[in-house]
Design a protein that fits this description.
Radius of gyration of chain B: 18 Å
Distance between the termini of chain B: 39 Å
Oligomer: heterodimer
Number of domains of chain B: 1
CATH superfamily of chain B: P-loop containing nucleotide triphosphate hydrolases
CATH architecture of chain B: 3-Layer(aba) Sandwich
Number of domains of chain A: 1
Strand order of the largest sheet of chain B: 6-7-8-3-9-10
Strand content of chain A: under 5%
Shape of chain A: globular
Largest sheet of chain B: 6 strands, mixed
Number of helices of chain A: 12
Order of helices and strands of chain A: HHHHHHHHHHHH
CATH topology of chain B: Rossmann fold
Distance between the termini of chain A: 37 Å
Number of helices of chain B: 10
Structural class of chain B: alpha/beta
Radius of gyration of chain A: 20 Å
Largest interface: A-B, 41 and 39 residues
Number of strands of chain B: 10
Structural class of chain A: mainly alpha
Helix content of chain B: 25-40%
Order of helices and strands of chain B: EEEHEEHEHHHEHEHEEHHH
Shape of chain B: globular
Chain lengths: 273, 251
């Protein structure tokens, strides 16, 4: 019944596949869940697309900086939806009161986290890819025209979203669904400091070091450099990657500590509010 | 086959905010045996089972399951055991087949599809396999939980109130399946229950807990004799209400 390979290796791709299958079945069985994935990114993009269209007609700077607002919206959505995609898959287990089943199964935390990461990409693809096509059709903004830079932006934004998602999942595991709101709102804490829609120099000088401590800041600065000055800032991407490594390690460490605390306090047996 | 106990609990303590839920209990459970864990609400049964499963960390003491120290070495044992409890559910939107496929894969079962068909037949679930789990009756859900418990053909089953909220006929049917499984596979079962009839029928040994301690531990027949009672329910009431005089008089 139990394969020798699975006894020998701590990490089992089959268990990761099992969890992905679980989320896939869930998505497939519920059209409101699928609609929800695409609804907000589309509304955001259309609203900001029109705003950008308006200011481009009325301001010289924005005319030169074509696409920065809509680009910022799309990249912000990658960051936000990436984290939400991770957290919602985790919350599905809490809502279904299935977390005890999983924690009592041979599923390792690292396998669980890996499955949540992959599912966040799947959910993001379902939600954001059609919206990027809408941005191209309605506003002529081709996100894919960013080429290699887009790959660098995407990888860094996903790493940040996972780090935050892992940390928040740990918090919910320890504190129950009472902490669920954090999953929906925590990323907005980043928004003013990550300088999504304006350069870091807009912030007061004393606040700028805090902004530079966040990996997404480097991405949004990098995007503006690309769209306004037509320069790809590889240095910013490398710095973001280094910071993301720290964030991811902290997220995983936090998750494991929260899991340990949940085992100590009996939270895994009471996964309600 | 190993002859060491399936479960070894030694001086186990769990304290929540200075209130002891489990207060220094020790027992061991032989492989292939069926043991009942009895006790009133708040006696510490669920807490004890949660620590045996590795879901809860003891304040002190130790738990060994199938030779693995819990929770530190839990991954050595988890694939060989399974559990059922009222504080967990199967995802409702997924069909029975989908749920069992996922748990089969998680538990490293080979030929999951074949195993599901086997369990479907054994537990009379075949015609329900493609129905969403949330659309089943309480009795059908219990059978699905049983299928999940048996998916990996476990050596050890931990069951917390397995027949709660079932009608007598379905409960009896579930007990018969569990009994047969343990007999055929020489599997060990630890069963927490409020149902004295269930414990009397299934268990060859009964551990009675009260206020986090083991109050008594023996075969049902010897407990009845010791307390001078005719049913385990009467014994349970004596223990719950602290009527030690019944035991002393009988002795």
């Amino acid at each position: 019944m139990i394969t020798a390979t699975e006894r020998a290796f701590a990490f089992s791709p089959r268990r990761v596949a099992a969890m992905m299958l679980r989320y896939w079945y869930l998505l497939r069985s519920s059209w409101p869940r699928l609609i929800e994935l695409i609804y907000w990114p589309a509304v955001q993009m259309i609203t900001w697309g029109f705003i950008q269209y308006y200011v481009m007609q009325n301001a010289g700077f924005f005319a030169r900086a074509g696409g920065t607002l809509i680009g910022a919206v799309l990249l912000w959505d990658i960051l936000f939806r990436g984290q939400l995609g991770f957290s919602i898959s985790f919350l599905e287990e809490m809502w279904a009161r299935n977390i005890g089943n999983l924690m009592m199964s041979p599923l390792r935390p690292v396998e669980f986290i890996t499955a949540l990461m992959v599912m966040s990409i799947v959910r993001l693809a379902i939600g954001v890819v059609p919206v990027t096509l809408l941005a191209l059709i309605f506003f002529g903004f081709n996100l894919y025209g960013l080429g290699f830079a887009l790959v660098a932006f995407f990888i860094n934004l996903m790493l940040t979203s996972w780090a935050v998602g892992i940390f928040v999942s740990g918090l919910v595991l320890r504190n129950g669904l009472g902490a669920e709101n954090l999953a929906w709102s925590i990323m907005f804490l980043f928004m003013p400091l990550a300088c999504v829609y304006y350069p870091v120099t807009t912030l007061p000088v004393w606040l700028q070091p805090a902004a530079w401590a966040l990996p997404p800041t480097y991405i949004f600065e990098g995007m503006r450099a690309l769209l306004i000055e037509h320069t790809f800032r590889a240095d910013l991407m490398v710095e973001a990657l280094a910071l993301n490594a720290v964030f991811l390690a902290a997220g995983i460490f936090g998750f494991l500590k929260f899991l340990q605390a949940a085992r100590r306090h009996g939270s895994l047996m009471q996964t309600g509010e | 086959m190993s002859t060491s106990p399936a479960i070894e609990v030694e001086q186990l303590v769990k304290i929540y905010k200075q209130a002891p839920a489990v207060d220094g209990i020790s027992f061991s459970i032989a492989r292939g045996s069926i043991t009942g864990l009895l006790g009133g609400n708040g006696a510490g049964k669920t807490t004890t089972i949660a620590m045996i499963m590795g879901l809860l960390m003891p304040t002190s003491g130790s738990v060994k399951v199938l030779g693995a120290q819990m929770p530190q070495q839990r991954y050595r044992a988890l694939q060989r055991m399974n559990f059922e409890s009222p504080y967990v559910e199967m995802p409702m939107r997924l069909t029975i087949r989908q749920n069992l496929t996922i748990f089969g894969m998680l538990y490293g079962v080979r030929n999951v599809a074949e195993r599901i068909e086997e369990l479907g037949e054994a537990l009379d679930l075949t015609r329900l396999l493609d129905r969403p789990t949330g659309k089943l009756s309480a009795g059908q859900k219990t059978r699905v939980s049983l299928a999940k418990v048996l998916i990996n053909s476990p050596e050890l089953l931990l069951l917390d109130e397995p027949t709660a909220s079932l009608d007598p006929d379905t409960a009896d049917w579930v007990r018969a399946r569990l009994e047969r499984y343990c007999r055929d596979r020489h599997a060990t079962m630890l069963l927490a229950s409020h149902n004295m009839h269930e414990v009397e029928r299934l268990c060859e040994r009964v551990i009675i807990m009260k206020q986090g301690r083991v109050e008594d531990d023996d075969t049902p027949a010897r407990l009845l004799a010791r307390y001078g009672r005719r049913t385990l329910e009467e014994v349970f009431l004596d223990v719950a209400r602290g009527r030690d005089d019944a035991r002393e008089a009988a002795q």
